[in-house]
Structures are given as C-alpha cells and as structure tokens.
## 1
Amino acid sequence: MDKGRINMHTYYLAVDIGASSGRHILGHLENGQMILEEIYRFENGMDKQGGKLLWDTDRLFTEIVNGMKMCRELNKIPVSMSVDTWAVDYVLLDDHDQVLGDTYGYRDGRTAGMDEHVYKIIPEQELYERTGIQKQIFNTIYQLMAVKQQTPEILENARTFLMLPDYFQFLLTGRKVSEYTNGTSTQLVNPQTKQWDQELIRRLGYPDQMFLPLQMPGTEVGALTNKMQEQVGFNCKVVLCASHDTASAVMAMPLVQGDGIYISSGTWSLMGIETEQADCTEQSRRNNFTNEGGYEYRFRYLKNIMGLWMIQSVRHELKDAYSFAQLCEMAAECKEFASCVDVNDDVFLAPESMTEVIQNYCRQRGQAVPVTVGEIAAVIYNSLADCYGKTVVQLEQNTGRTYDAVFVIGGGSNAGYLNQLTANATGKTVYAGPGEATAAGNMMAQMIKGGEFASLAEARTCIFQSFAIIAYEPQTA
C-alpha cells in the first residue's frame, strides 16, 4: 500500500465529465454507507471554431490530471479510478496513436443528411432490427458517415476507434480498451452478441479493424503510466465503469426491490426501464425507443428526451442571472401559462437563441407566446413533464406492464417543481435522488470490482441507505 494512503478508508475516484461540466469525486464506504466528496470541478462545453462545434480533448485531459493531483494534495489516494462521459463522440487514432482530424461535438451540424447516405446502404427498419438503437442524427454511425463523405482520407488513415472515456483512459494507462455500454450508443453494436456488428460496419465502408473488442464495466484497464505517476504523484488502477454516463447513473437507481421507470435527468433526460433482452420490434422503432447497453449485459430500454438543456440554454442567455431554483419558482408563478412545445423537435438541439426558438414555435402553432422569464421556464418544465407522461404510456404499451414509480436520478432530481409536475403528468409516485447518480454508479462498478459489494443489488441497497430520496405524490388540479 502507498505509504501516503490514509489507512482508515479505501478510496475510489470517479471522473465524471458531462457536456457542461466535469467533476472528480472521491468515494469510500463508512458504516455501510457510500460517502462522496467532490474534490475538483471544471467547466466544459463545445468550442465554436470555423463554424464547427468541437471538443478540446487536450484541455479536458489536462483537467483530468489536475483533479487527480488533488488526491495527492488531500492525501487521499484512490485504489482505482474510472472515467465516464456523454455518449456517441469519439476519436480516431493513426498508426502513431495520434488523433486524426477534429474531435467533433454531437451538436455539430455535419451529420445533416447523413442518415440518407446510411439508409441507401441499409434501410432504417433493418438497421433498428440489427442494433435496437433509436435514430438520432448525431449517433456515431452518422458521424462516421460524415467523415466518409467529407474527409475520407481520415478514415483511410484510421487505425483505432475510441470513445472519449476510452481515449482518456488510454492516455492514463497506455492501454487501448473499448467499453461496452458507451459502445452501444454508436448504433454499430449487435444486441445479441454484445459486440461490434462487423458485417454492418463493412457494409457501411468503415474500417472494421479499427474497432477493438468491447469489454464490460469492471474490467481492469491497467495501472497509470510512469509519466502519469510522476505528474499526479501516485499510482492506481484504472478500471472500466459503465462509461456512458447514463449507464452509470442507472446503476445508481435506488431500487431495493421490484422495478420501476427511471429518468436520468441532466442536460438530457433518458427515460426508460431495465430489461434482460433488447426490444428491436417495429413498434419500438416507431416510438423511437432505444436499447442501450447496461451493466452485466442488461439493456437500458429508454427514450432520449431533450432534458434540461433547454432551461440551461435560457439561463445562459440571461447571463446566468438566476439560479435553477429561482427559475423553478418563477415557472411555478406562471403555472397557468398553457403553451407547450415538443421538446424533442430538432429546432431545440443547438439554436442560437433558445428563447427565440421557443417563442417562434408557439407563435407558429397559434399558442400564446411566452414573454417573461417565468413564462419561458413554465413552457419548458410543463413540456418536459408532458413528454414524460406520454413516454410512460408508450413504455407500458410496449412492455405490456404497469409500473408504480418513477425514479429521477442525476442533477435534475434537485428540480422539485419539475419532479412534482412529473408525478402529476405520469400519475405515479416520483422518487428523486441521488443527485450525483452518475458518479455513484461509476464508483459502484469500481467497488464491485474491488470486492466492496458482492452484487449490483447489494450496491443499490447501499445507495438507497446512503442518500436522501424525496418522494413526490401525484396531485390533482
């Protein structure tokens, strides 16, 4: 054991990077409870460069290293660490392991029309039957088609494909390993084999040799390189978590028995259930549900909903003058404002002004146009709750089952007003928390690997006992 390690606790480090911010969270078990401590936080966002929306991976990796140094400063050295991020974005490496081209963000417009190029090769219905992944124009399958169409020389020189968490962990360890849950978001994985669909990849004209075998959360990637040990001041193992942040968040659903519907609520709202088998039926495709990979080969049968991105964008347009709690209060004061938008409409994906797009949407459909901040917020929150309600109906129709509760996990679990609207719209009890679900789930995969928990069920019981969970009962008007 490292001489500087505090013997009292065994620490694990979760590096959780979202589309708007990143955080380093140390965790340990104490008296049967998981204790989380945020030790470092940094801003994130796509950079606009020459009309492109790009990720600065060099800056992000510098932030990862800076946060790791805090462990040394605090004298709390983790036995292992893991990185999770959002889905679908990736890097391509050449034969010298250098990044080829730009690292695009999923909101970039280069994928416009790429679905048609894909469907000329494989019809949309057949693609869903093969992968079970919902159509989103930013899925990796369409991003790679954009590379093929616009910069084919990059694909020709590509030797390794890595999702962003895998890339960062490669920089930490010198080992290239591809993680399963995030891999499924590419729309290039077979839900039966749980591996890359090599035939599909070849049909699309992507180099099949650049895709590494998919590994499950809990797989040890390796120790830090000597260079990294010198930089951060310690060594530890790097272990795969469920590196798609939603997959980690769903691991931390505080479900002790039975099952329920979850909403992983953040920039996106991922709403669905856990299943043992993928549902690749035509009805599922028409309802735009997806079958993303989860821990222990579970499937996250869910719908991707625009989420808190809309209210985050409005808040930024107001120079962050209001807290989210204040925006909730202002929306509640305008609760009678009845206009509603389809939050999944592509016009809300990356507008120059979210406020103006919402106003135009309402105007074009003959609805009352929101003017005040409170009215804008009310439209967003009511529209999200309305979408959640409709998604519950579709879930129950598709599965032939009825669910008693909705579990809201992630940062959005702190939005009490939205949680109450969700209970009203779904007619179900809403259980909100934990707020740091993704970091907790990241930690759970490491702790199961480390022998702290015998199973996912045991780890979820610990989550239920460790964090405040608030219940919201449906209210009638």
## 2
Amino acid sequence: MYDVIIVGAGPAGSTAAKLLAEKGFGVLLIEKFKIPRYKSCSGILIKKTLMLIDRYFGESVPESVMCEPVENKGMIFTNDKGKEYRFEQEGRNIWRSSFDYWLVRKAEESGAVVRDDTIAVSCEEKGNFVSVRLHGKKADIKSGTQTYTEEARYLLDCEGVACVLKQKIMKTVPAYITTYQTFQAGTIDLDPHYFYAYLQPELSEYDAWFNVKDDLLVLGVAVKDTGKIRHFYNEFLGYMKRYHNLKIEEQIKSEKWLMPRIRPGCQIDYGVRHVFFAGETAGFLNPMGEGISAAMESGYQAACAIADHFDYLDQVYAAYGQSTENMRSYMQRQWSLTGEMAETFQEMK
C-alpha cells in the first residue's frame, strides 16, 4: 500500500511526487501517456516558474529542454480595441515534452515509482484510504496490460484539463475551451523573443496567439464552439498577414487541445475526503493558458500539506487552502485585469 498515488505526470504531479518521495513517503506516479508525453502548450516559462524550479528542484532548467530563441522577454497583449499592453519579464522558451520528461525523471530519482501508459479508471474511498483501479502494465508483470488495484492513504489528482477521476467523483462536467495551433515555416515582422496574445473577438472566441519555437511560427486560436475553428484561424492568419507581414512557406503540423474555461470567482476545488486536486484539475490557471507555475506551486503545496499532517485529514485541507490563498488571490487579480483589458473577458472583472 502506497502513502500517496498521484495521477498525472505533468508539472503538478511530478513536483508533488518529488517532494513526497524525498520526505520518505511511498509514492506511485501514474501517467496515462507514454513518457516522454506530448502536450500542446505555449512552452513559455515565466519568471515565477523559473524561481519555483530553483526552489523546488534546486537547479536551473537544463538547456536540453529549451528551444530557440531561448530567452523570452515577456508577453504583449492586444486588446479588442487594438491597444497594446506590454508585460516585460525574464522567461525561457521550452518544449513541454522535454520539460515534463525532466520533471518526471527528477521525481523518479527521488524515489517515486513511475508507471506510464497507465490509466486511472476509478477510485473508491475505503475507510481511511483510497482504492484506485488502474489499467496498464505493472512493472513486475511481463505479459501485456491488465486492470488491477492499488491502494494508498491519499490520492492526488493532477490529470489536468481532462480530470476524468474528478468528474466521476463530483459528478460534474467542466466547461472547456478548445485550442488549435499550427507550426509553420515562414517569416513575420515580429520580435521572436515575445509571446503575443490577441483578444479581438473577430479573431477568436477566447484569444489568439503567436510565438516562435526553433524557427517555426506558432499560430493558434481558442474557441468555445469547435465548429468555428477554421473560420477564426483563417481570420487570424489574414490579420497577421495584414499587420505583421506574415508569409507562410509550409505548414509543418497542427494540433488541438483543451483547457479549462475559468469562470467568474475563479472557484478552486481542493478535493473530496482522501482525494485531493492540484493544477488545472483544482482550477488553477492563469490568463492566456499560463498554467505551469500554478501547477507546480499547487502540487508542491498539496504535497507539503499531506506530508506535514499525514494522519489528520482536516489539517491537510486547512494547510493546503491556507498555503495557496495568495496564489488564488493572484490568479483572481490577473483574470480581473484581463477583463478590464478586453470585453471578451469582461465577465471576469
């Protein structure tokens, strides 16, 4: 029986797994995809994320996970009236698959047991522990996959936007935003050291964005209605051609993903009895999809609360909520600021 089973080997899950394993707890880290896993993401580490990595992992982000241009100088927002807002700060440009893989390896080096290609099917409370049904290949079984059960005192759900376990536990279906982005070979008259977000309603139902990764132009739009992806994407391409001299030579690839739709009040779900939530599963997500810093911090604080108050469930909740209050307040202020910048997000004021 493990002390903690963590579902989801992204920034939240890996950070939590590393801390708990270092403190001597028995940790099983489950990932439904084959590691290294792929995730559609801007891949920008903001200054706060860099500070958290230094604090939680005791070292800087390795060059092996970065892409060109390595240095990110901040974000430039264009609101629905065409006004620019510049937010200058130090950052790094990374590939999420490589970054997440590095985090997982750090958790494993600290003593966490990692099982990829394994799905958490369901979980059930049994007194003072949780029974989790998994489907995958156990390390000690050589022949194929199977459905089996593991038990732990706590389960930390860090699945991200999918949050299948959370949906089953809370019997709710979260609201999603669908993202669509392409990687293009071409040229454009914009500084590749910035991440650009466009909030004009004619370009998307949420936001549109541009950044550069290893000389590839990344252009994306986010929608509430998936049937409108092609319309908004074409509108965004036309906008970038008119105002920034975009010239496309060849499309390398395209991808779709989901992210939570944060609602007014920025509700946070900390968990249900012995099942805790962190990262996007809990509701932590900053504007323009910046979820890495919130995922790492919430995963770390959830792990600290479990480690410090392992035998006292109420105290775990109290410590987790208190330690993330500043983060939740910061998130609310950021969404409120976004609401003041553009009518697209006016409900968030």
## 3
Amino acid sequence: MPIALKVGEILSKNGINVVYTRTFDKVAWPSNEGEDLQKRCDISDKVNADYFVAIHANSADVSSVNGLETYYFQGSSKGQKLAESVEQELVQATGLKDRGVKTEGYYVLKNTNAVAILTEIGFISNPEQEKVLNTPEYQNKYAEAIATGILKYLGMKK
C-alpha cells in the first residue's frame, strides 16, 4: 500500500490525475474475491481511467523464489508497452531478477476498460525480499521506478 500511495504522489506531481481503488488496507468491500476485484474495476471504469496499474507482492511455495514480473492482458499492445516500461525501470532500480513481462488473464487486467497492468514487485514468501519491501528506502525506490516507467511510457520522462 505505501508504494502505491507514493507512486500516486509522484504521478500527481507530474500532472497526472490519479484515482486510487483504495488508500488503506481495511475496506468495506465484499469478502468474495471476484466481487472485490470487480469493485476495483468499477472504480476505474466510473472515472473513465486511461490506465489501471495494480501493484502486488508475489508469493511462492518455495522461499528462495525471487524477482520481479509484470503482467498485461494478451492482445493489449498498449498494456504490453506499459508493462515493459515499468518492468524495465523496476529491474534497473532494484537490481532484482527480471522474471519478465508476461500475459495473464487476471481479473483486473481483463475486466477494466483501461489499459491495465499488474506488477509483482517481489516475493513476500522470500524472507530477504519481504524485509526489503517493508523498508521506506526500498518502498521509495520501487515507487520511483514504477512512476518513471509510467511517465516514460506516456512520453513525459526520458
């Protein structure tokens, strides 16, 4: 959550109108995952968002798994370009393993009208990555990278 808020701050300072699907962890949304995710898509669609960026921490059964990956919905060339821009900046800023840009049918990628990506910024199942993700220094580094990737995609930053 802190990373998403920081990304929003950076984008806002660069003239981007940012709308959050949530600004804190406790929300009065349905506990049903599909309904919860649809609420997020509805917020995006209601404001006619151009872009939908989901920021997640990944998890795996094996604690040694690590790295970054960013997803887009198959067939979305704009989604692919945005995902590539964000992934490139994250890898460059953090030095973490590049697990690649991938296609996936995640709910928020296919059920919003906006160009959508979902970035997995590390594995909370990996103790080293979980520790780093909880430090303000790295949260700022991740936020700067994600925002820079978005701004570069938009042609607003070199």
